């Protein structure tokens, strides 16, 4: 096809402009260099509630303190599964396709989805009670896979001692939990094995969904001396329902999640989830600096904090012993 001279000039000009547009300018070169030096961290959680939010905030804070700041040399993609394991699986597939430098997976269902989806991208799990039982790692040593992380497993003996200090005549403990959450079923069995030798009965109240928590808690009325809650994501995400039922029934509510004291528990002895997030961030930083996830052993949190609420105790029909109040890190009036 032949073109007239005018048309040739116009086409030539357009081509020149296109070439100029495609040629990298000095600024573009700088941007490219910056992009090449930046890192990408993907963070996913099964649901958003104060404890898991604290984990995420701790991770981001630790990354910033160690030189990886969002908007400068770090891109963070955060996705919540909104309590759905199906959503968790979709998020895991998206992250695997995006190929970030590291994936931080908060809580067991999200961690299981991510670990099942990628065997090459480094994964750091967080707030998982038993990562071995959840099949994330073979043991707590270096995994020799693409996975490491931080467990929030708590020794139950101090929890049971706390229960007995709050209710000295303790005979029956209520436990609301999600049957589909492996963290919660593990704690159920561990509680049984440790309470029964002490002559204390465990009364389980399953709640399949967050919307079932209030009914499950109310089903314990007249059957238990106190209710104990672990970091079950359905229960924690609807903790106000637990507190409402406990106040109605005048049964004290004891938590392993310290953030739950502000939301209705009488007492909690547990890890600080913001600190757990920072510990998780430490592992992510090691990976961003070149370490292999499979060479980093999984970690536990060493310190437990005791938090109490006199206000919630009064609402649930008890008075906290002075000796226990003296032990607490923080007491809410």
TrEMBL record:
SUPFAM superfamilies: Periplasmic binding protein-like I (SSF53822). InterPro entries: ABC_transpt-TYRBP-like, Peripla_BP_I. Pfam families: ABC_sub_bind (PF04392). This is ABC transporter substrate-binding protein. It comes from Neisseria zalophi.
């Amino acid at each position: 096809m032949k073109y007239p001279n005018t048309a040739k000039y116009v086409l030539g000009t357009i081509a020149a402009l296109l070439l100029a547009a495609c040629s990298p300018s000095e600024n573009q070169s700088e941007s490219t260099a910056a992009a090449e030096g930046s890192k990408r961290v993907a963070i996913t959680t099964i649901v958003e509630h104060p404890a898991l939010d604290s984990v995420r905030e701790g991770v981001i804070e630790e990354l910033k303190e160690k030189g990886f700041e969002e908007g400068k040399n770090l891109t963070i993609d955060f996705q919540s599964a909104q309590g759905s394991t199906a959503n968790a699986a979709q998020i895991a597939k998206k992250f695997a396709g995006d190929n970030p430098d590291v994936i931080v997976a908060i809580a067991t269902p999200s961690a299981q989805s991510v670990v099942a989806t990628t065997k090459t991208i480094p994964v750091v799990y967080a707030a998982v009670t038993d990562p071995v039982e959840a099949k994330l790692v073979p043991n707590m040593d270096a995994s020799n896979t693409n996975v490491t992380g931080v467990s929030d497993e708590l020794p139950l003996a101090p929890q049971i001692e706390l229960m007995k200090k709050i209710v000295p005549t303790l005979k029956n403990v209520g436990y609301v939990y999600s049957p589909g959450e492996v963290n919660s079923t593990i704690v159920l069995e561990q509680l049984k094995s440790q309470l029964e030798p002490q002559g204390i009965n465990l009364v389980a109240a399953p709640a399949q969904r967050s919307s079932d928590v209030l009914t499950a808690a109310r089903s314990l009325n007249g059957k238990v001396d106190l209710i104990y809650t672990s970091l079950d994501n359905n229960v924690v995400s609807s903790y106000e329902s637990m507190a409402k039922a406990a106040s109605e029934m005048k049964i004290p509510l004891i938590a392993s999640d310290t953030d739950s004291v502000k939301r209705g528990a009488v007492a909690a002895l547990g890890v600080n989830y913001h600190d757990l997030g920072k510990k998780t961030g430490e592992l992510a930083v090691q990976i961003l600096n070149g370490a292999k996830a499979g060479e980093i052993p999984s970690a536990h949190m060493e310190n437990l904090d005791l938090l109490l609420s006199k206000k919630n105790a009064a609402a649930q029909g008890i008075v906290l012993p002075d000796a226990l109040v003296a032990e607490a890190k923080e007491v809410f009036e």
